[in-house]
Automatic annotation (TrEMBL), chain A:
This is Menaquinol:cytochrome c reductase iron-sulfur subunit. It comes from Peribacillus saganii. The chain crosses the membrane at residues 12-32. Keywords: 2Fe-2S, Disulfide bond, Electron transport, Iron, Iron-sulfur, Membrane, Metal-binding, Oxidoreductase, Transmembrane, Transmembrane helix, Transport. Component of the menaquinol:cytochrome c reductase complex. The Rieske protein is a high potential 2Fe-2S protein. Residues 72-159 form the Rieske domain. One of its GO terms (molecular function) is oxidoreductase activity, acting on paired donors, with incorporation or reduction of molecular oxygen. InterPro entries: Rieske_2Fe-2S, Rieske_2Fe-2S_sf, Rieske_Fe-S_prot, TAT_signal.
Automatic annotation (TrEMBL), chain B:
This is DUF2487 family protein. It comes from the Bacteria. InterPro entries: DUF2487. It holds the Pfam family DUF2487.
């Protein structure tokens, strides 16, 4: 027998505090989790998708880079292939442009129109964009090509969300 | 544009820019070629969706037009012609059919629109990573047919 004998009253109050504490925690934890949820979500915001493109292989010539994202719509979960036109500008910075024409959403391609070399060309209604993605006035598109956010990790190009063209 | 409510809205706003209709022709056959028939449907669907993605602003991709392989030629031509006529009345300057069914090539002149015939690749036997380049390759050839027609 130890010197400190625990009385029945003490024992009950300890156990009750303990159990009650657990119960209170069980109730409060989800509430706290819900309260901070928006904060946790925000950190997931900038999702980047790996491409197969090595950053060192990029040149000043825009190159077609395909990458796949998981897309969930109401019925199907599918892998959708997306494309970006990627090059390094004269400062050596990577530029990744969306291929979606700002006119009606066709796919533009680099240097495919013989009469307008070194432009992005839309085959549908002959929209033109300069190398930096700005729309050429007088052609149907009214805004420049969207720009992908990008980052590099281990020498591989990662692409993120699309942002409107700066000049727009 | 696809035949979905959202894209039809877009079509109504940009009607003057969408001058090309694309009709996939898909045979249905329950006899000995049932598997091939299903494979054609799959292939045509993937191919047309990819064409639509490239040329969204100028092509209206219509729902697949299915028919029984047992239909005789006049009946088939009539089906195709009805659609082409209806679409031309709606203001489509170019009407394209796309199919893997070689039967259509027999009487290509009898059609009101242009026929694109592509032999179907049994995609179900391909590995995932090989499918994409394969389809891309086919799509590139078909895109050239469209641009040539538009330039005429």
């Amino acid at each position: 027998m130890s010197k400190h004998r625990v009385s029945r009253r003490q024992f009950l109050s300890y156990t009750l505090t303990g159990v009650g504490g657990f119960m209170a925690a069980g109730m409060l934890m989800p509430m706290v989790r819900f309260a901070v949820d928006p904060v946790l979500k925000a950190s997931e915001g900038g999702d980047y998708v790996a491409t197969k493109q090595k950053v060192d292989d990029l040149t000043e010539e825009p190159k077609r880079v395909d990458f796949t994202i998981k897309q969930v719509d109401a019925w199907y979960e599918s892998e959708e292939t997306q494309t970006a036109w990627v090059y390094k500008d004269d400062k050596g910075e990577i530029v990744a442009l969306s291929p979606v024409c700002k006119h009606l959403g066709c796919a533009v391609a680099w240097n495919t129109d013989k009469s307008n070399p070194n432009h992005f060309f839309c085959p549908c209604h002959y929209g033109l964009y300069t190398k930096d993605g700005a729309n050429v006035p007088g052609t149907p598109p009214l805004a420049g090509l969207d720009v992908y956010e990008h980052t590099t990790k281990d020498g591989i190009l990662y692409l993120g969300a699309v942002k409107p063209h700066k000049g727009a | 544009m696809k035949w979905t409510p959202n894209e039809v809205d877009m079509f109504l706003q940009a009607k003057e820019y969408v001058d090309t209709a694309l009709i996939p022709l898909v045979p249905v056959n329950f006899a000995e070629n049932i598997k091939q028939s299903a494979s054609m449907k799959d292939f045509t669907e993937i191919l047309t969706l990819e064409i639509e993605r490239q040329f969204k602003g100028r092509i209206m991709l219509l729902p697949q037009l299915a028919y029984l392989s047992s239909w005789d030629e006049p009946k088939r031509l009539e089906l195709a012609a009805d659609w082409a006529r209806g679409l031309k009345e709606q203001g489509f300057a170019h009407v394209f059919y796309i199919t893997s069914d070689s039967e259509w090539r027999v009487n290509e002149q009898g059609l009101e629109g242009s026929l694109i015939w592509i032999p179907s690749i049994p995609l179900e036997h391909l590995e995932e990573k090989h499918k994409r380049p394969m389809i891309d390759d086919q799509v590139r050839q078909v895109l050239a047919i469209f641009t040539r027609k538009w330039h005429d």
